[in-house]
Write a structure and sequence with these properties.
Elements lengths: L8 H33 L1 H4 L13 H28 L5 E2 L6 H26 L2 H7 L1 H4 L14 H8 L1 H8 L2 E2 H18 L22 H10 L10 H5 L7 H9 L3
Parallel strand pairs: 1-2
The protein binds zinc ion (2 copies).
The site of one zinc ion has 5 residues, from loops.
Length: 259
Amino acid sequence: MQLIDFSNTTDILYFTLSLCIIVFLRYVLVSGLFYVLFYVFFRKQYWHRKISTKLRTPGQHWREIKWSGITAIIFALSGVGLVALWQAGYTQIYMDDTYSWWVSIIGLFLALFIHETYYYWLHRWMHRPNIYRWIHKIHHDSIVTSPWTSFSFHPLESILQAIVVPIIVLLIPLHIGAVLLLLIIMTISATINHLDIEIYPQHFERHWLGKWIIGATHHSLHHAKFMENYGLYFTFWDKWMETESPEFEALFREKTESS
Ligand SMILES: [Zn+2]
Ligand SMILES: [Zn+2]
C-alpha cells in the first residue's frame, strides 16, 4: 500500500503537516477529556483522590501545552519516518492474516515490554545530574502534574522517545492494528499517569495484575521525589531494581480508601 509518494516534495509536506496536526489534536483531545472529566465534571467525587497538595505554578498549563506541541512535531516526523520504512519494506508490520491473531497479541505484549525496558533504563540515565539538566529537566519543571504534562518534554527527550516505535516495528512482526493499539495505550497511559488523581480502584496496588500497572499515585511520586518510580507502563523494573518508592502502597491506600 502506498500512503505517500516520497519522490514528491509537496506530498511529503502535506503528509507531515497533516500528521503534526493529528498528533497534536490527539494530545489536546485526550488530555482535555481527562481534564474535563476529573477536574471539572467529577471533581467532587474524585478530589479526595488528588495526590499532590501543592499548587501548580502560574502559566504551567500553557508551558506544558507548548512543549507538548513541539513533542507532537517530533512524534509526527518519527511517524513519517515509520511510513517511509514501511513503504520501503523494511518494517515487519503486516495488514493481512500472515499470522494468526494470537501472534498479534504476543507481538503487542512484546512491544510493550521492549518499550518499558527501553524507557526505564533511558529514564534512569536521564536522571544522571550531567544529563538531567540538558534533557529531562523540562519534564520535571512540573512538580505537580496534570493531564497536560503527559507529553511536556524537551525536544531531545522527545527524540529519544520517538525513535522507539520505529525500532520496535523493525524488530518484531506487528499487525497494523497492534501498532495503532500500542500508540493508543501510550497516549492513555501517559495521561492517566500524569493525572495527579488516582482513578484505579481500592486494593489495586495489591491485586495480582493491578500491582504491575503504573497509575497516577506511582508517577506523581516520581515527580515529587525524582529518584524513584522510573517506570512507564509497568512496575516490574522498579520492583526488580528496588527503585519503587517505599511510600507508594501506603499513599495509594490513603488516596483510595472510601470516604
Ligand atoms: Zn512524568
Ligand atoms: Zn524523571
